[in-house]
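User: Some background: our group keeps a shared notebook of sequences we're curious about, and every so often someone picks one and asks for a predicted structure to add to the entry. Today it's my turn. The entry only has the sequence so far, pasted here. Could you supply the structure so I can complete it?
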Amino acid sequence: MVVVEQEQPEGASALIPAWIALGVVGLAGVYLLVLGAAAIFRPALASAFLLGFASTAWLHFAELALRVLVGACLLVAAPSMPGADVFRMVGVVLVATSVLMALVPWRFHRQFAERAVPKALQHLGLVGVCSAVGGGLMLACAGIGATS
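Assistant: Of course. Here's the predicted structure to add to the notebook entry:
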C-alpha cells in the first residue's frame, strides 16, 4: 500500500483545517459585530447578556471552551490573514487566559465578573464601538485570508 501525504496549506493544522479555522474566526467577527450593534442600539439587551457571563459553572466552562476554540482557530488562520502577528497574539492570549481561568474555581470568575462587568457597562457605547470595529476587522481579515 502506498501512502501519499497531502501538502497542507500554510497555517493548516492537523486538528483544525485552515478553512474551518477561517470560518470560526469569521463567525467570531460576526459575534463581535452583533455585540457591538447591540451595545449601541439595544444597550439594555447587551447589558443583560454581558451580566450573564460566569453566572453558572456551565456558562463559565462553555465560555472557556469557546474562547479556546476561537483562540486555536486564530492561531491556525493567522498566517493567511493580514495582520498575522496581531491575530496570532490574540489567539495566544485567548488560549492562555482560558487555561488559567480553567485552573481556578469558577466562583472566582463569577466574583470578578460581578465587579468588572458593571464598571465596563458604564462605558457601553465605547465597548460597542470597539467591539464592532474589532469584529469588522476580524471578519474582513478572515475573508481576505480565505481568498488567499
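Suggested note for the entry: The first helix runs from residue 18 to 41. The radius of gyration is 17 Å.
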